[in-house]
Amino acid sequence: KNQVEQSPQSLIILEGKNCTLQCNYTVSPFSNLRWYKQDTGRGPVSLTIMTFSENTKSNGRYTATLDADTKQSSLHITASQLSDSASYICVVTLPNDYKLSFGAGTTVTVRA
Amino acid sequence: GAVVSQHPSWVICKSGTSVKIECRSLDFQATTMFWYRQFPKQSLMLMATSNEGSKATYEQGVEKDKFLINHASLTLSTLTVTSAHPEDSSFYICSAFLGGGDQPQHFGDGTRLSIL
How far is B82 from chain A (nearest CA, A)? Predict the structure, then answer.
């Protein structure tokens, strides 16, 4: 069973609207939790990073939250733009290790 | 920010040929580089971890004689898919790691490999 589960698998939103992506993980504790954005045919790019003790981190219109008690993280996209269309991947770094546990990603499609 | 260059970005070749993919960290020295494989709509799957000057560490189920990894310098790692077959067709992504708990892995833009 994957240690990082993401939902929904995909979603479609209209330009200008907000959306929230979910990530449930079983790795605990962990070194850090990141959200990556992966455009089609490109490599992932880091959006946010949170350590075990942090609750929220923002990067422009992207805001990530972390609830260590429920082992959940979310990524909120505000005022979506067409360029936000991509796959968003939740990634957990194992403690004392550099290896990453990847979620399968949520594919976001923003339509005009 | 840190840049990782991967080359080629797309390659199509006949079954049985060998294909080499390069991964370079352009503006930093990477203590460790990683090679991933990604099938459509799936997670990145770690294939191997490569440290400069030493043998790569392969994940379970990855054939080391099939996927040859060379990490000759702190800025260059190569992955050679030997005697490639159609089932090797995939998206291969490398990443470079500077070191340190909060440092991210910096990913290349991937190589789309299609074996005919």
Answer: 23
Q: Which residues face B67 on adjacent strands?
A: B81
* Distance, CA of B75 to chain centre: 13
Q: Could you give the CA distance from residue A109 to residue B43 in angstroms, rounded to a whole number?
A: 18
* pLDDT, tens only, A29-51: 788 899 999 998 899 999 999 98
Residue type, A1: K
Closest residue to B43, CB basis, from A42, A98, A103: A103
Inter-chain residue contact B102 with A51, CB threshold 8 Å: yes
Yes or no, beta carbons of B44 and A89 under 8 Å apart: yes
Do B23 and B6 contact (CB within 8 A), yes or no?
yes
The pLDDT-based confidence of B72 (bands split at 50, 70, 90) is confident
What is the distance between the alpha carbons of residues A94 and A99, in angstroms, rounded to a whole number? 6
Residue B50 in contact with residue B34, Cβ under 8 Å?
A: yes
Please answer whether residues A4 and A89 qualify as being in contact, where contact means their C-beta atoms are separated by less than 8 angstroms. Answer: no
For residue B102, the chain A residues in CB contact (below 8 A) are 32, 49, 51
Q: Are the Cβ atoms of B46 and A103 closer than 8 angstroms?
A: no
